[in-house]
């Protein structure tokens, strides 16, 4: 009996496919429909992991879907990388971005994402953005609201 892959195993598997401009596949051969990297007490992705993920998404025009980065303890640096993916011309990879529980995020994350959406407003596919439990402050929240209007 095989066990479910760990967070890191899923991440590494998906990165391999994304870097080759392919849709990620599960071990069973089924297409991965969302990049689900919800952290736990024992296992989290790092800002460096997210920078690598963003780099792979920048070169990929096959994957489009949900990116779940909840509960990983990410900083604004990780979100700066993700904002470059949202700013990418031509093809948008992220339809839903979940950042809940990354309590180290600040107003800068809201500003980065909001500005990326403003810079790419004609091309964005982002339909849902989850910042639950994160204090974006007035500046970050206003930038997101500006982008949504």
Would you mind describing this structure in some detail?
- It is a single chain.
- With 149 residues, the protein is of the alpha/beta class.
- The chain has a single domain, classed as Leucine-rich repeat, LRR (right-handed beta-alpha superhelix), CATH 3.80.10.10.
- 42% of the residues lie in helices and 10% in strands.
- The chain is built from five helices and four strands, in the order αβαβαβαβα.
- A four-stranded parallel beta sheet has the order 1-2-3-4.
- α4 (107-119) links the parallel β3 and β4 (128-130).
- α1 packs parallel to α2 and α3 (76-87) runs parallel beside α4.
- The radius of gyration is 15 Å and the shape is globular.
- The mean pLDDT is 93.
Question: What topology emerges from the helices and strands here?
Answer:
Elements: H1 7-19, E1 34-36, H2 47-58, E2 65-68, H3 76-87, E3 94-98, H4 107-119, E4 128-130, H5 137-148
Parallel strand pairs: 1-2, 2-3, 3-4
């Amino acid at each position: 009996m095989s066990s479910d892959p760990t967070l890191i195993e899923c991440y590494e598997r998906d990165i391999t496919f994304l870097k080759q401009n392919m849709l990620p596949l599960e071990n069973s051969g089924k297409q991965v429909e969302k990049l689900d990297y919800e952290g736990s007490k024992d296992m989290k992705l790092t800002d460096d992991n997210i920078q690598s993920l963003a780099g792979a998404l920048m070169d990929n025009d096959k994957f489009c879907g949900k990116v779940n980065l909840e509960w990983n303890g990410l900083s604004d640096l990780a979100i700066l990388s993700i904002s470059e993916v949202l700013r990418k011309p031509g093809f948008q990879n992220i339809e839903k971005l979940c950042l809940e529980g990354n309590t180290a995020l600040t107003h800068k994350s809201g500003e980065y994402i909001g500005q990326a959406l403003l810079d790419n407003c004609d091309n964005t596919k982002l339909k849902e953005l989850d910042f639950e439990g994160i204090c974006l402050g007035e500046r970050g929240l206003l930038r997101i609201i500006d982008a949504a209007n």
